[in-house]
Design goal:
The protein is built from 3 helices and 8 strands, in the order αβββββαββαβ. The chain is α+β, with helices and mostly antiparallel strands and 164 residues long. β1 and β2 form a beta hairpin.
């Protein structure tokens, strides 16, 4: 099992080498047990239990205050979700899908007669990094180098908690 994981990571690293100035070193530390996102400080943490493994600044939706309610509101969701998919061919370098909307999100939007939207990701950026320049439609955007690390370290099924 460990050999298979190393071979998969090596294949990903070979593919990512063309995207980075320097290839990433394989990560051989503790597993990521959760992703903690704090919108107010624009800080994303990869956690192993209570230990911070890595931290990254990020940009988010163009209307960052409050929980995402409907498609096009420019907000980043708040609450507990899961990493549920990944896209190595993302137009934003790489991306990891967040399981928004959940049943509660769909119910709230339905009560309002609105579409909750979807396709919320952690992703890189096709443009120059500009701190505190919120530009996504609700996603969490990190540098391309950061998304490469996150992509390698965070498996599908990992919980992601997004706080105001």
């Amino acid at each position: 099992m460990r050999i298979a994981r190393i071979l998969i990571l090596m294949a990903i690293l070979i593919g990512l080498a063309a995207c980075s100035e320097e290839p990433l070193e394989p990560y051989d530390g503790p597993s990521v047990t959760s992703v903690e996102v704090y919108k107010s400080t624009r800080s994303l943490y990869l956690m192993h239990g209570d230990e911070v493994i890595r931290s990254y600044p990020f940009e988010m939706g163009f209307a960052p205050q409050g929980h995402k309610v409907f498609e096009g509101d420019g907000r980043t969701p708040e609450g507990r979700y899961y990493i549920d998919r990944r896209n190595p061919q993302s137009q934003y370098h790489l991306s990891l899908g967040i399981s928004y909307p959940n049943a509660r999100d769909r119910a709230i939007a339905a009560e309002l007669g609105l579409d909750p939207g979807g396709d919320i990701f952690i992703h890189g950026t096709p443009k120059l990094w500009a701190a505190d320049a919120d530009w996504t439609v609700g996603c969490i955007a990190v540098t391309n180098r950061a998304v490469e690390e996150i992509y390698l370290m965070v498996p599908n099924g990992t919980p992601i908690n997004i706080y105001p």
